[in-house]
């Protein structure tokens, strides 16, 4: 009797079935963790002098470059990197969400690096021109953005396509209670 009442309140849906994923909320979570994890890795690379571009390079157009090397500005730079990553993850869902596999994410990271380091970044003063930062900074930051983009793209693609693949399986389970051989 109690199970019947629960089903009628749940309008015929099984309470144990997973809720469909809200892709925009999910992509914001992925963007937050991508920014946090890879922002910390980037901060470590700055601390170990692997790159000459400061941790707070996204704040460089708004604050004097000399001030950006302090610990507090490093935290602010991490926060800016997280915000940029959330925006990037939302853009990924809108533009490339239907693509599968790691390659779209890899290309997504490369495009972001190109936008920030070769085009818009030097134009607004966020990043020094490529000829001034040296090959070590170019390679380290390019690889970091490749991994960052792959993390965002592959995580979102896996969830989107995993969710899409699970729907037909649920329909066949509901239509046929016995396993087919």
TrEMBL record:
<dbReference type="Pfam" id="PF11085">
    <property type="entry name" value="YqhR"/>
</dbReference>
<feature type="transmembrane region" description="Helical">
    <location>
        <begin position="133"/>
        <end position="158"/>
    </location>
</feature>
<keyword id="KW-0472">Membrane</keyword>
<feature type="transmembrane region" description="Helical">
    <location>
        <begin position="71"/>
        <end position="94"/>
    </location>
</feature>
<feature type="transmembrane region" description="Helical">
    <location>
        <begin position="106"/>
        <end position="127"/>
    </location>
</feature>
<dbReference type="InterPro" id="IPR024563">
    <property type="entry name" value="YqhR"/>
</dbReference>
<feature type="transmembrane region" description="Helical">
    <location>
        <begin position="21"/>
        <end position="41"/>
    </location>
</feature>
<protein>
    <recommendedName>
        <fullName>Membrane protein YqhR</fullName>
    </recommendedName>
</protein>
<keyword id="KW-1133">Transmembrane helix</keyword>
<keyword id="KW-0812">Transmembrane</keyword>
């Amino acid at each position: 009797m109690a199970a019947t009442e629960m089903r009628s309140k749940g309008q015929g849906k099984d309470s144990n079935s997973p809720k469909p994923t809200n892709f925009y909320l999910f992509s914001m979570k992925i963007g937050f963790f991508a920014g946090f994890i890879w922002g910390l890795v980037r901060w470590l690379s700055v601390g170990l002098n692997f790159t000459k571009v400061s941790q707070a390079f996204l704040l460089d157009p708004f604050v004097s470059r000399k001030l950006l090397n302090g610990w507090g500005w490093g935290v602010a730079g991490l926060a800016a990197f997280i915000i940029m990553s959330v925006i990037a993850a939302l853009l990924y869902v809108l533009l490339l969400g239907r693509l599968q596999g790691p390659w779209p994410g890899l290309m997504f990271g490369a495009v972001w690096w190109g936008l920030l380091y070769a085009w818009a970044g030097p134009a607004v003063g966020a990043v020094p021109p490529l000829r001034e930062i040296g090959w070590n900074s170019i390679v380290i930051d390019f690889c970091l953005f490749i991994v960052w983009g792959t993390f965002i793209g592959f995580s979102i693609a896996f969830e989107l396509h995993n969710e899409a693949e699970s729907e037909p399986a649920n329909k066949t389970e509901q239509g046929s209670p016995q396993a087919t051989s």
